[in-house]
Design a protein that fits this description.
single chain, about 450 residues, alpha+beta, 8-stranded mixed β-sheet, 4-stranded antiparallel β-sheet, 18 strands, elongated, binds zinc ion
């Protein structure tokens, strides 16, 4: 029971608050509070029922159904019947509301082949069959959180049409984890069949930031990613007669070591670069020198110039080392840069500043941090490069129980990263903060 003193204090606060006109932010807070338990229920449902990349059948249906109920003009199964290469689970929802710019908000929808290792009452027990056997399926990257925030934002924008003017387009993207979804949707006419974006926004949960905050930064947020396949070709022969061969294992081994000097001796140390040889395969038996050796590399860079420079250096080093070993021109190495590369995710400077201001106003400056870039990659970057080249921003949504972060700092307890079987967000404050942040950012860009 409250003491009289507390009651008076609460009453005085209520009178004080009532003396002020309700701001748009207060109204938004109240609306979010009225819906948050439903949203948390949606989040738990999505978490318990994850679907792998390109298989987002039920997930995309839930997104499409919810957006239709909110009054959006929804197109689902985008591309399914036009190109067998498309995943067919893209959802695009349009809400036209008078003259003004067009703002797109994107969520990803897919989960990962990870067996969940949490004790959550809503933990996933879903499994899927793969060629290597049965795998667990888990929203270990927080795309369930993204979708919940996205649907909450959709509802808030639909209910506040008197506050803004322009067009909102909401995009549910399949297959982010396999980096095929954005490209597939663009091939299906994403920017020609629907209102062209002036601005495009997205958020990603962050496993190192507490729930209740967001973090934003101008420029590079996520690295560009390239996969490179290298085949070193020599001449095989008897392991006891190396002089009669051109040993590709020796050449490839020299190359693996040399590749690290590209990062440490050729690239600007102020700009992060990663070259990792993740796979090295050659030979069949102790006493046979094989004809060739295969390397698989992942390359992470932050700018197109840096990317060009690293890829050129990899080609130069590969050809140079093979030539130095005496490999003739007709057995020169084969170097293939995979087509499914994604560029770095670069936040447009002017748009970032506008969104940053909106986030400051919505959440308070103390809850809007300077974002840190990481060397993971996203295909959200592809939208910024596709015609009409919209200004894009992605920001971090803090997702972790603040107590866990405190324990990690004070006691050194381990914080699971994204993609970990033990990772899970603290839903309620993260959803509340994400929906408020995204709604406020869109409304600021579509201010009357
Ligand atoms: Zn991920
Ligand atoms: Zn993700």
């Amino acid at each position: 029971m409250k003491s009289m003193c507390t009651v008076w204090f609460v009453l005085a606060l209520a009178v004080f608050a009532g003396a002020r006109p309700a701001t748009a932010q207060n109204v938004l807070d109240q609306k979010i509070s009225a819906n948050i338990s439903d949203w948390v229920a949606t989040y738990k449902h999505l978490h318990e029922h994850p679907e792998l990349s390109t298989e987002e059948k039920e997930t995309s249906a839930l997104i499409a159904r919810t957006l239709r109920k909110l009054g959006y003009d929804v197109t689902d199964h985008l591309g399914q019947y036009e190109d067998p290469g498309l995943t067919g689970y893209g959802v695009v929802a349009v809400l036209k509301n008078g003259p003004g710019p067009t703002v797109w908000v994107r969520t990803d929808m897919d989960a990962l082949p990870v067996k969940e290792n949490t004790s959550l009452p809503y933990a996933s027990h879903v499994t899927a069959k793969r060629s290597a056997g049965e795998v667990g399926v888990m929203h270990a990257c927080g795309h369930d959180l993204h979708m919940t925030v996205f649907l909450g934002t959709a509802q808030m924008l639909a209910e506040s049409k008197s506050q803004w003017s322009g067009t909102v387009v909401l995009l549910g993207q399949p297959a982010e984890e396999t980096v095929g979804g954005a490209a597939a949707l663009l091939r299906a006419g994403l920017f020609t069949k629907f209102p062209k974006p002036d601005y495009m926004l997205a958020l990603h949960d962050n496993a190192w930031l507490p729930a209740g905050v967001v973090a934003i930064r101008e420029g590079a947020l996520l690295a560009g990613s390239d996969s490179v396949d290298i085949t070193i070709r020599g001449y095989g022969g008897h392991g006891a007669a190396p002089n009669a061969t051109k040993d590709p294992i020796i050449i490839a081994s020299e190359l693996v070591v040399f590749l690290q000097t590209i990062v440490s001796r050729e690239m600007d140390p102020q700009q992060p670069t990663v070259v990792t040889v993740g796979s090295f395969h050659a030979g069949t038996k102790h006493n046979i020198i094989p004809d060739d050796a295969h390397l698989q590399l992942t390359v992470r860079t932050m700018t197109p110039e840096q990317r060009e420079k690293v890829l050129a250096a990899i080609k130069r080093a590969t050809n140079g080392i093979a030539e130095a070993a005496g490999v003739p021109a007709d057995r020169a190495p084969i170097i293939e840069v995979a087509k499914d590369s994604v560029p770095a995710t670069i936040n447009d400077v002017a748009l970032t500043r506008r969104v940053h201001t909106a986030l400051d106003q919505a959440l308070g400056k103390d809850n809007v941090l300077e974002g840190q870039p990481i060397m993971a990659s996203e295909d959200f970057s592809l939208y910024a490069l596709a015609d009409p080249k919209p200004a894009t921003v992605m920001f971090w949504l803090g997702a972790v129980d603040p107590q866990k972060i405190k324990d990690s700092l004070e006691k050194g307890t381990r914080l699971p990263s994204l993609h970990s079987s033990e990772y899970y967000p603290l839903p309620e404050p993260a959803i509340r903060t994400g929906a408020k942040a995204m709604t406020s950012a869109v409304e600021a860009l579509l201010k009357k």
